[in-house]
Write a structure and sequence with these properties.
- The chain is mainly alpha-helical and about 200 residues long.
- About 40% of the residues lie in helices and about 10% in strands.
- The protein has a three-stranded antiparallel sheet with strand order 3-5-4.
- Helix 2 crosses helix 6.
- The radius of gyration is 16 Å and the shape is globular.
- The N and C termini lie far apart (about 35 Å).
Length: about 200
């Protein structure tokens, strides 16, 4: 793990924590404990960025991931703070418009052009160029391990579903998302209720 400067963070002594590639979340849990004990704080300028290896994705899988995420974006927004919803944040803009242009993509360049080759979207397809990853920027900054773990597992489920199923997701609520367990649905519904009081 390393600490690095991030010019987008408001406040004094702002920095970001960057993890190594993780095969499990044990070390992340320990780091969250240590930085919380040290008094780490987040504010609305902070974001949680999660990368997944994407080198093996086919173009068809990329398209399904993007289109499924775009379909779920308003549902995901419902369990995010207002600062991360819709186009409220210039560092994690909506992907709904871009998703309309990816259906006929033949190359990674076509997909990136749909996003105007801009990384500041809730799904960052430009991360593929430098890291061979897909980056998710939607979640607000947090030092709460449970929130991070639940979000990573949500994204893992979305990726696995999109890679393995040609049928696009048609869910209209958290409870209809096909890759979530009953416990995950409860968790995200509770987050939604808390954030919409």
């Amino acid at each position: 793990y390393k600490l690095g400067y991030d010019g987008s963070i408001d406040g004094s002594n702002g920095c970001e924590v960057v993890s190594p590639i993780l095969n499990n979340l044990n070390s992340l849990k320990k780091v969250c404990k240590v930085i919380n004990e040290a008094g780490a704080k987040v504010n609305r300028s902070c974001g949680l960025h999660v990368h997944f290896g994407a080198e093996q994705f086919t173009i068809a899988q990329w398209v399904r991931i993007i289109r499924n995420y775009a379909h779920l974006e308003s549902i995901i927004d419902s369990f995010m703070p207002m600062s991360r919803r819709g186009d409220n944040n210039r560092y994690c803009k909506s992907i709904v418009s871009a998703a309309n242009y990816v259906a006929d993509a033949q190359t990674m360049y076509d997909i990136q052009c749909a996003f105007r080759r801009d990384r500041y979207h809730k799904v960052n397809v430009m991360a593929y160029n430098g890291h061979k990853t897909i980056e998710f920027r939607h979640h607000s900054g947090t030092t709460d391990f449970k929130k991070i773990e639940m979000w990573i597992n949500f994204l893992r489920g979305l990726l696995e579903y999109s890679i393995n199923n040609e049928t696009l997701i048609s869910a209209a609520s958290i409870d209809e998302i096909p890759f979530l367990t009953a416990a995950q649905k409860r968790y995200f519904n509770e987050r939604k209720e808390t954030l919409n009081r």
